[in-house]
Each structure stands twice: as structure tokens, then as C-alpha cells.
Write a structure and sequence with these properties.
Blueprint (H helix, E strand, L loop, with lengths): L3 E14 L4 E2 L3 E2 L3 E19 L6 E6 L2 E2 L1 H12 L11 E9 L10 H20 L5 H15 L11 E4 L13 E3 L13 E6 L9 H7 L6 H21 L2 H20 L10 H17 L4 E4 L5 E5 L4 H11 L4 E6 L5 E3 L2
Parallel strand pairs: 5-7
Antiparallel strand pairs: 1-4, 1-14, 2-3, 4-7, 4-8, 5-6, 8-9, 10-12, 10-13, 11-12
Helix pairs in contact: 2-3, 5-6
Bound molecules: (3R)-3-hydroxy-3-methyl-5-(phosphonooxy)pentanoic acid.
The site of (3R)-3-hydroxy-3-methyl-5-(phosphonooxy)pentanoic acid has 13 residues, from loops.
Length: 344
Amino acid sequence: MDTFKASWTSPSNIALVKYWGKYPVQIPANPSVSFTLSKSLSKLSIIAEPDSSKEINVDFYFENELNEKFKVKIVKFLSTKLERFPWLLDFHLIIHSENTFPHSSGIASSASSMSALNLALLSLDQDITGHKPQAEDFFKEASDLSRQASGSAGRSVYPMLATWGEIDSIMDSSNFYARPVDKKDVDPIFHNYCDSIIIVDAGEKSVSSRAGHTLMETHPFAEQRYARARFNLARLLVAMKDGDMKTFIEVVEEEALMLHSMMMTSIPSYILLKPESLMLIEKIKEFRNVQKIPVCFTIDAGPNIHLLYPAEHKAAVQAWLASDFGQFKVIHDEVGNGPEHLKD
Ligand code: PMV
């Protein structure tokens, strides 16, 4: 038997309408939509060497060092995929993964790394079995597998803007995989939108997203939240098609604050925002009102602030960040083209 190799880069994404709350197995309680980023990437390669052990045999290197913690997670995931990839028992997988964003920068790497892993697995599958699906089916399956490994990762396999979850008005939407939003349905202002990530705290989150999703099961406002998210997603997609900045900003900021208000009102409650996060939110609103530049913020499950703005205002916004917020590390990212198959 031959040795095979597959390498992919895959980006992180930032949700505009948040997925928060799920049903088994990784079925989102409400649909979500995210920008795919361009600079915050994972690069992952798998070398598959013939192996006769008839077990799932993985060596996992993160940034060139063997990492047992990640390995255990990956072996657990792969063991649920033996029916789909029976060849997993015939190979020793040597996986190397690294991120282009600094370790502990506060940017979640599960979306980028889990999508890169599943894209690489599917590329290996093509080479090992000789079965080559159409590109559309390849990415749909990559999204489905990535979603099972880490919910929001399912959206990272597509460029620019991707939705995940059933949406009444969209026929081919699904809870099982994400779908790309067609470029013609997105005003050009959003095609190269900027996301400057202001790092308030680079440490690990005190409460994992897994625990956060679970707390939604008993949350007193869960049903209202899911209904509001569906409503917000519908109006956001229309606003993004029409280039309606007012509604875009209104929805995106409401979603960020509602995500955190869900955390603050769950039982038990918890708070991931820091005083600096709140200060930045105030300053961003003030800058928007005074400068008439349509900046807005969104926030992931952590204290860091994503500052979103049109590319035409890059110089002004980045100069403001440098002059007024020099104390924070900032990662200047923007909307990107999605994963890339690396051939060497
Ligand atoms: O993919 P998970 O299980 O880490 O959950 C992601 C949750 C948020 O990042 C807060 C929202 C989202 O839709 O990405």
C-alpha cells in the first residue's frame, strides 16, 4: 500500500448572527451566519502511512510538538467516522497543525483547525478510494463533518459569508451543513469587509462554548432567543443584500450583546466580558456617531472585541485604533476566500 498526504489551510470565522444552543448531535437550535476570515488560518497536513495494527493510530503535532490533549479529541472524533472512512484502520496518521494567528491570542482555533482536518480527511479519502465527488458535494460533506467536530467549523469551508441551519426562506438550507451565500446576494461593500480583532484578554475562556451551549437547555429565555435569532438572520440577509448599513449594524451589535446576555442570565450565570470590553463598546459607538464612519462591533464567546468596518475606511479606523488603543494587541483581519488545498 502507498503512503498518502493531504494538506489544507482553513480560516476562522466570526458569526454575525450567533449559534448558541444545540440539540444532539451538533444540531443548532437556531440558524447562524458568519464572515469567513482571511488571515486567521489553520494549516493542517495528514500523512497516512500503511499500518497493520487495525486500530486508529494517530500522532498529532501542534506547532511541531506532539500534543496528547488534541490527539485524544481527534481520535475520539475519528472513532465515530469508521463507517465513512473504513481505511482509518489501515493507516497510521501523522497530523501536523499550526495556526497563523498567535497561540493564546483569544481567537478560537476550533473552527479553522476542525475544518482543515476534515477537508484533509476527505482529500485523503479521494486518493485512497479513488472516489472523486463533485466539488459542491465535497464541500457539503466537509461542512457536515466539520460541524460534527465543532459546530461553527461547518461554516469555515466556504468563502466570504456562510449560513448554517434551517432558514424558512432558503430551500437548500440545512442543520447538517453550512451553505455559502451567493456573491450576487451580498452588497459589494461586504465582499472585503474588515475585522480588526482587539485582544482584551488572550487567556483561555473561563467557561467553554460547550458548557455555554449546554446551559441554553435550561435557560429561561431560550425559546425567545431562538425566535429572535431566526428573525435577526432573515433581516440581516436582506440588509446585506441591499447594503443597508443601519440594519446591519443594529442586528450585528444586538446579536453580540444578546449572546453575552444569555450567559449573564443562564443558571448559573457567568460573565465573559471585561471592563475593557465595555469601554471599547462605548468608544466604538462614539466614534461611529462623531466620525460618521459605519464601524460596529461583534463579540465571540470571550472578552475580545471584533471591530467590523468597510475596507474604504481602513486607514482612518486603523489610525484611530493605533492612536487611542495602543495598549491592546490588534489583529487586522478581513473577509476571505475560504480554505485552500495545498499541493506540494
Ligand atoms: O462552534 P462552537 O461550539 O465553539 O460554538 C460557537 C459559538 C459562537 O462562536 C459564540 C457563535 C458562533 O456562531 O460562532
